[in-house]
Automatic annotation (TrEMBL):
Protein name per Swiss-Prot or TrEMBL: Ferredoxin
Keyword Nucleus in annotation: no
Keyword list, A-Z: 3Fe-4S, 4Fe-4S, Electron transport, Iron, Iron-sulfur, Metal-binding, Repeat, Transport
Cofactor(s) this protein cannot do without: [3Fe-4S] cluster; [4Fe-4S] cluster
NCBIfam families: FdxA_Protbact
Domain annotation 4Fe-4S ferredoxin-type: ranges: 1-30, 31-60
Its biological purpose: Ferredoxins are iron-sulfur proteins that transfer electrons in a wide variety of metabolic reactions.
Protein's UniProt keywords contain Electron transport: yes
Biased composition (Basic and acidic residues): 107-125
Length: 140
């Protein structure tokens, strides 16, 4: 059973949880974090660190947050691993109490801010086998 980052993280993206994770299973997107369910060791350390209570054990997800289990598994494949605490967005506190933020989830970085975690390091540059980082990601 892995832990899951839910809707409360969207537009807040506090990274206190990252600092306590012993296995570096957090991945950073443009406006939220996700947990790689294959890397999470169920240590529970991140849960208490999240200032917006966005992290749940998969078995304890509220009914209206269950889709985040699949979203975490999907997005950890393209977001970049984050291993150190960062400052939250300037307007994070404005979003702490906001509900129903799923429509605000950004799955891709804006042009010029592409920090996705493509295998081989580049989305479009081809390696010696003629494969791009995106090709390799899709083959996983």
């Amino acid at each position: 059973m892995a832990y899951v980052v839910t809707e409360a993280c969207i537009k807040c993206k506090y990274t206190d949880c990252v600092e306590v994770c012993p296995v570096d299973c957090f991945y950073e997107g443009p406006n939220c974090l996700v947990i790689d369910p294959d890397e999470c060791i169920d240590c529970t350390l991140c849960v208490a660190e999240c200032p917006v209570n966005a992290i749940y054990a998969e078995d304890d997800l509220p009914e209206d947050q269950r889709q985040f289990s699949a979203l975490n598994a999907e997005l950890c494949k393209v977001f970049k691993c984050i291993v150190e605490k960062k400052d939250p967005p300037a307007d994070a506190d404005d979003w702490k109490e906001v509900k129903n933020k799923l429509h605000l989830l950004e799955k891709e970085f804006p042009p010029g801010e592409d920090e996705r975690n493509y295998p081989g390091g580049s989305r479009d540059e081809k390696d010696e086998d003629g494969l791009t980082g995106l090709d390799k990601l899709l083959m996983r």
